[in-house]
Amino acid sequence: MLKFSKTYFLMAVGLFVVEIVIALYVHDRLIRPYAGDFLATILLYCMVRSVVSIRLKWAVAAVLFVSYLIEGLQYVDLLGRLGLQHSRLARIVLGSSFSWADMLAYTLGALAILMVERLTRPAGPAPTSQRPRMQLER
Q1: More confident residue, 131 or 34
Q2: What is the SS3 assignment for the chain?
Q3: pLDDT confidence of 111, banded at 50, 70, 90?
Q4: Residue 134: left if φ>0, alpha if ψ -120 to 50, beta else—which one?
Q5: pTM here?
Q6: What pLDDT sits at residue 129?
Q7: What domain of life does the native source organism fall in (predicted)?
Q8: How far is CA 98 from CA 33, 74, 91, in A?
């Protein structure tokens, strides 16, 4: 069901800015390759949750699938097959080489989402006996 969430939208925008800064200005062996991929999964999650009301487990599964799919496309050299291997933008957005460490970073990002959501969300609905009952008008 489509439902806009200002909170998730603002988090997605913030993470997008962080990802751009990492992609353009960070050229190290830790933050760019691993933290960027870790945050990419969280960014995708926030993007999805900003426009779709979906159960936590399905949202996390979907964004993890997309993350894995993008990494798999790197394995089959999608950019080379499309003639985009020299495009800086394409390499920044889709990446250029497969890495199992990236898969781990995506997985850890998904686990972080689950952990944070479970810690910050209110507990499930009250037991049936404590729920207010609807009264029918007569």
Answers
A1: 34
A2: CECCCHHHHHHHHHHHHHHHHHHHHCCCCCHHHHHHHHHHHHHHHHHHHHHECCCHHHHHHHHHHHHHHHHHHHHCCHHHHHCCCCCHHHHHHHCCCCCHHHHHHHHHHHHHHHHHHHHHCCCCCCCHHHCCCCCCCC
A3: very high
A4: beta
A5: 0.81
A6: 46
A7: Bacteria
A8: 11, 5, 12
